[in-house]
């Protein structure tokens, strides 16, 4: 994973250091933050002078060929979903298998005409909630053990070429 491996190693080092230093780590979903600094997470109230929310939702490049070219020119690559209505009636491909990918799927469900979640691993790695099974009507599909090989389209995303990581076979998804 190269750069990603370095980032994950650094993050783990920070967590290990915090534990050794006696920092209270509340690995729970934050439900509410009040103006007076009180935090409700997992039904428990916390208070501190410093709060670090490490929510894992930092936009990150996936390293897919043509990704940056299209992202830089408003070609249909998104790292955040500030306005789900922008995706109304569109086919959406979400690359990833963690909490952020799941959050995007949940925000777009019922808005996008089709959502396909593509994840390189054989299992999803979410901590909170679970995606429902793919729909009978095909609104949501989940492809595990699959990578986006390249993005199709000249100046806009028109589809992706998927690669089954077990067999090496590729197929296009419009």
Tell me what you see in this structure.
This protein has 174 residues and is an alpha/beta fold. The chain is 20% helix and 26% strand. It contains 3 helices and 9 strands. The protein has helices at 3-20, 67-72, 99-108, and strands at residues 30-33, 38-41, 44-47, 91-95, 114-119, 140-144, 146-152, 159-164, 170-173. A 3-stranded antiparallel beta sheet has the order 1-2-3, with no helix packed on it. A 3-stranded parallel beta sheet has the order 4-5-6, with helices on one face. Strands 7-8-9 form a 3-stranded antiparallel beta sheet, with no helix packed on it. β1 and β2 (38-41) form a beta hairpin.
Annotation keywords:
single chain, 174 residues, alpha/beta, 3-stranded parallel sheet, globular
Main beta sheet, described? Answer: 3 strands, antiparallel
Structural class: alpha/beta
Please report the total strand number as a whole number: 9
* Beta content: 25-35%
Radius of gyration: 19 Å
Q: What is the overall number of helices?
A: 3
| Topology pattern, helix = H, strand = E | HEEEHEHEEEEE
* Helical content band: 10-25%
Instruction: Please tell me the overall pLDDT.
Output: 79
- How does the overall form come out from the CA principal axes? globular
Strands, helices and their partners?
Blueprint lengths: L2 H18 L9 E4 L4 E4 L2 E4 L19 H6 L18 E5 L3 H10 L5 E6 L20 E5 L1 E7 L6 E6 L5 E4 L1
How would you briefly describe this protein structure?
The protein has 174 residues and is α/β, with parallel strands linked by helices.
């Amino acid at each position: 994973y190269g750069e990603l491996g370095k980032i994950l190693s650094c993050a783990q080092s920070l967590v290990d250091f915090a534990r050794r230093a006696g920092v209270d780590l509340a690995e729970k979903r934050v439900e509410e933050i009040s103006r007076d600094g009180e935090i409700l997470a997992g039904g428990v109230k916390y208070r501190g002078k410093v709060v670090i929310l490490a929510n894992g939702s930092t936009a990150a490049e996936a390293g897919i060929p043509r990704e940056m070219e299209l992202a830089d020119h408003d070609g249909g690559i998104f790292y955040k979903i500030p306005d789900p209505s922008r995706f109304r009636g569109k086919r959406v491909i979400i690359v990833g298998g963690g909490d952020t990918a799941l959050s995007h799927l949940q925000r777009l469900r019922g808005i996008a005409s089709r959502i396909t979640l593509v994840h390189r691993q054989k299992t999803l790695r979410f901590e909170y909630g679970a995606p429902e099974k793919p729909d009978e009507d095909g609104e949501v599909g989940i492809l595990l053990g699959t990578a986006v090989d390249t993005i199709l389209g000249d100046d806009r995303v028109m589809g992706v070429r998927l690669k089954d990581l077990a067999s090496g076979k590729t197929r296009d998804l419009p």
